[in-house]
Amino acid sequence: MPMQLNEENGGKLLVIHVTGKLVKADYAQFVPEVDRLVQQHGTLRLLFDMTDFHGWEISAAWEDFKFGVEHYADIERIAMVGEKQWQQGMVVFARPFTKATVRYFDHADAVEARKWLDAS
């Protein structure tokens, strides 16, 4: 499966490991989990680990867009951890679809990404 979810900090932080290419079915697991955590905690912080991530199929990209619109104000911070130049560009692309503060971290700086997410 290209998407694995792990709750941390009592569910206030959701770590999403994405690998390969995401498909529409991946969002059938992801969206309900975010919905549940938002109901429990209000807002969330997300860590997207994009190690070995190759993008989305078109149907999955649409699901990602719908997710962004639905959860526009539900996420405080998003740390995107990647290893490729195009992944860094995703931060600029993501900003109009969320109220969250979004930052990119190189894979070598993953510890810094977690510190940033944990900061008040």
UniProtKB/TrEMBL annotation:
<dbReference type="Pfam" id="PF11964">
    <property type="entry name" value="SpoIIAA-like"/>
</dbReference>
<dbReference type="InterPro" id="IPR038396">
    <property type="entry name" value="SpoIIAA-like_sf"/>
</dbReference>
<dbReference type="InterPro" id="IPR021866">
    <property type="entry name" value="SpoIIAA-like"/>
</dbReference>
<dbReference type="InterPro" id="IPR036513">
    <property type="entry name" value="STAS_dom_sf"/>
</dbReference>
<protein>
    <recommendedName>
        <fullName>STAS/SEC14 domain-containing protein</fullName>
    </recommendedName>
</protein>
